[in-house]
């Protein structure tokens, strides 16, 4: 092998090593960006419209790029801004996947826990019982203390996926209120869909419908949060659910929390 061949070989090794490092950094960067996109879509931009989603994706990419810069992670110059539009679309596609996964989880658990066929779905929506279960101690109904809502929140937000929101600080100690409202909006849409079709076929669930339900529910919950006692109760309940999701307490099949001395939480919507 000539000196020229050795130099070419060394150069190629350097280029391959650099490209591999870029690919590893890029993969980690995109993973973090997808997680943040999902988080912000819950905290501040629930069910965004198309243009809003693209704007949010750009903001998330900018924030993650700055975070990578602070960690002294370097990318090849060609990655930015050349790949920026593609990355925005990638985050929007992943957000669509996030919403689809939530819908699938809601459908699965709702069908298991509610006797909604055929007329049952309409009655759940009319009475608001999809937000409630009987209090086993005295038979009274308590808003939001719903086995379905609890199961969906824990299964979806606290799954083993790398993109599960339990991997963010915001979901370690509690479930943000917007997270609960998003789940309620999707469950309402699912039950409404079953009610309209009158069958057990997977109902259609449009983003516009969920967005409208979310806004209405958010207004009601904001009124509830203005009442200190109700606010404290809701926060306590969401903290309990997060604790279960993070594996901090036992979760029995009947929904009880083993070892908990906290009484039933009364949330009135």
Structural write-up:
The model is unreliable at 8-20, 133-145 and 251-269 (pLDDT under 50). This protein has 269 residues and is an all-alpha fold. Helix 1 (3-43) packs across helix 3 (84-113), helix 2 crosses helix 3 (84-113) and helix 4 packs across helix 6. A hairpin with a 6-residue loop joins strand 1 and strand 2. The chain is globular, with a radius of gyration of 23 Å. Helices cover 63% and strands 2% of the residues. It contains 8 helices and 2 strands, in the order ααααββαααα. The protein has a two-stranded antiparallel ribbon with strand order 1-2.
Task: Give a concise summary.
The protein is 63% helix and 2% strand. It is mainly α and 269 residues long.
């Amino acid at each position: 092998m000539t000196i020229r061949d050795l130099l070419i070989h060394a150069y190629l090794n350097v280029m391959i090593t650099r490209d591999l490092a870029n690919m590893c950094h890029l993969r980690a960067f995109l993973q973090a960006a997808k997680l943040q996109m999902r988080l912000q879509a819950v905290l501040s931009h629930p069910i965004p419209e198309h243009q809003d989603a693209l704007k949010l994706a750009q903001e998330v990419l900018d924030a993650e790029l700055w975070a990578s810069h602070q960690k002294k992670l370097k990318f090849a110059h060609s990655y930015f801004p050349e790949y920026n539009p593609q990355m925005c679309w990638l985050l929007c596609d992943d957000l669509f996947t996030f919403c689809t996964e939530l819908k699938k989880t809601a459908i699965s658990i709702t069908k298991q826990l509610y006797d909604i066929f055929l007329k049952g779905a309409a009655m759940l929506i009319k009475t608001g019982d999809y937000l409630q279960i009987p209090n086993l101690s005295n038979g009274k109904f308590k808003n939001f203390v719903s086995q379905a809502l609890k199961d969906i929140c824990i299964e979806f937000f606290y799954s083993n996926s790398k993109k599960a929101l339990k991997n963010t600080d915001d979901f370690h100690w509690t479930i943000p209120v917007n997270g609960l409202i998003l789940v309620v909006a999707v469950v309402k849409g699912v039950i409404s869909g079953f009610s309209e079709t009158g069958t057990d076929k997977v109902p259609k669930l449009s983003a516009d419908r969920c967005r409208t339900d979310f806004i209405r529910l958010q207004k009601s919950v904001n009124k509830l949060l203005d009442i200190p006692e109700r606010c404290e109760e809701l926060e306590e309940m969401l903290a309990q659910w997060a604790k279960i999701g993070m594996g901090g307490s036992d979760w029995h099949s009947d929904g009880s929390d083993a070892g908990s001395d906290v009484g039933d939480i009364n949330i009135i919507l």
